[in-house]
Specification:
With 426 residues, this protein is of the alpha+beta class. The protein folds into 3 domains: 265 residues, 4-Layer Sandwich (Phosphatase 2c, domain 1); 41 residues, no CATH class; 76 residues, no CATH class. The protein contains 11 helices and 17 strands. Strand 5 and strand 6 form a beta hairpin. Helix 3 packs antiparallel against helix 4. Pfam families: PP2C.
Length: 426
């Protein structure tokens, strides 16, 4: 084959690139979505944007964004986050890089974008807050970033339901309780007359039930906007994402939500999930749901199959094996492929989440003199390494990037308990 290729006529580079782009387009899945919502307090918002482009003007670089924002103490933070988070995330990704490098840069850019959005909103002096579950679908790769207790689940074509987020509720997350207390917050229930304690665990001051959110400047900087990030690659069989606020998840377990809408197209599936949640619990909270189907391009009419009659418990999150009927399940999974986990990180420490500039495989033309959070240009003498003075540092060299401006460094220190609660370095 190689010998015959030498005798072929030369093909213009532009033609080769065109063929590659056409091939990539054929291999990319189709994305179908639907949304539904019922409002009680008017604090839930969502974002759907299916025409984003990694390379401006190149339709073959299209990716989609889906997000749910569940506000509290007003809707200002949810609205601000919906309008600004995407641009802040994209602004933190280096220009002129390949698709693989772009996907690799996403987790760090999501951390920077969440923190920048929180920093800008708090500078407005408003006290509301919001959860954020932010999903990027690029081909078969799904990247999810989240703070709070909105949730994203994946229902694979094999009928396996996987959680792509972590709930940041103090009542249920012991690790977050310890982090908040170590940073200077107090965790306890609401006390009423007579000394009785009621309700879920909350963080004081402020009384917030969540350990991570965007906004909430009156609660304390130990309630951080640093998201849990998970990135997975679907098999060529595709899958279904269900992204929803806690109005859904307080009423339905993940498996029940997935099962309730199997066999329906995405637009009807979202309606069905909301309907099932209201039937189970009633309209006690804002209830919002987005269903996203990632579909093989040669099978556009296929919807997620009906739930298997019997599914055994699985040992691990993605590469699961049945305890019984192993041969049958193995055969079924081999026909649909296995979800590949690419990246997962939930640390609240910015020095861990922003990484080490010198060890990053993605090189930026901006160099070392730009704030990794707010993207502000810095003079060589202005930048402060994210690792400087940190006992959690992954580097013993404080002169290594990424670097922060003084304002973002103050915010980082406050979030990590190195400054008194209530310090405003914005």
């Amino acid at each position: 084959m190689a010998r015959r290729c030498r005798h072929r006529e030369l093909v213009p580079l532009a033609a080769l690139i065109s063929k590659e782009l056409k091939g990539e387009k054929i291999e990319r899945p189709c994305v179908r979505f639907g949304s539904a919502a019922q409002s009680r307090k008017g604090e839930d918002y969502f974002l759907v944007k299916t025409d984003c482009q990694r390379v401006h003007g190149n339709p073959n670089s299209t990716f989609s964004v889906f997000a749910v924002f569940d506000g509290h103490n007003g809707n200002a933070a949810a609205i601000f986050t919906r309008e600004n988070l995407l641009s802040h995330v994209l602004g933190a990704i280096p220009r002129g890089i390949s698709r693989d490098e772009w996907l690799q840069a996403l987790p760090r850019a999501l951390v920077a974008g969440f923190v920048k959005t929180d920093k800008e909103f708090q500078s407005r002096g408003e006290t509301s807050g919001t959860t954020a579950t932010f999903v990027i679908v690029d081909g078969w790769t799904i990247t999810v970033a989240s703070v709070g207790d909105s949730r994203c689940i994946l229902d694979s074509q094999g009928g396996v339901v996987s959680l792509l987020t972590v709930d940041h509720r103090l009542e249920e997350n012991a690790e977050e309780r310890e982090r908040v207390k170590a940073s200077g917050g107090e965790v306890g229930r609401l006390s009423i007359v007579g000394g009785a304690e009621i309700g879920p665990l909350r963080c004081w001051p402020g009384g917030l039930c969540l350990s991570r959110s965007i906004g909430d400047m009156d609660v304390g900087e130990f309630i951080v906007p640093v998201p849990y990030v998970k990135q997975v690659k679907l098999s060529s069989a595709g899958g279904r994402l269900i992204i929803a606020s806690d109005g859904i998840w307080d009423a339905l377990p993940s498996e029940m939500a997935a099962k309730s809408c199997r066999g329906l197209p995405a637009e009807l599936a979202a309606v069905q999930v909301v309907k099932e949640a209201l039937r189970t619990r009633g309209l006690k909270d804002d209830t919002t749901c987005i269903v996203v189907d990632v579909i093989p391009p040669d099978n556009l009419v296929v919807t997620p199959p009906s739930s298997p009659k019997k599914m055994s418990k699985f040992k691990s999150f993605f590469r699961r094996r049945s305890r019984d009927s192993a041969s049958k399940l193995t055969k079924k999974l081999s026909s649909v492929g296995i979800v590949e986990e690419i990246f997962e990180e939930g640390s609240a420490m910015l020095s861990e989440r922003l990484g080490n500039e010198s060890s990053s495989s993605v090189h930026t033309s901006a160099g070392l003199f730009m704030c990794a959070i707010c993207q502000m240009d810095l003079a060589p003498s202005e930048g402060i390494s994210v690792h400087a003075g940190s006992i959690f540092s992954t580097s013993s060299k404080p002169w290594e990037g990424p670097f922060l401006c003084a304002s973002c460094r103050n915010k980082k220190d406050a979030m990590e308990g190195k400054r008194p609660s209530g310090f405003k370095g914005l």
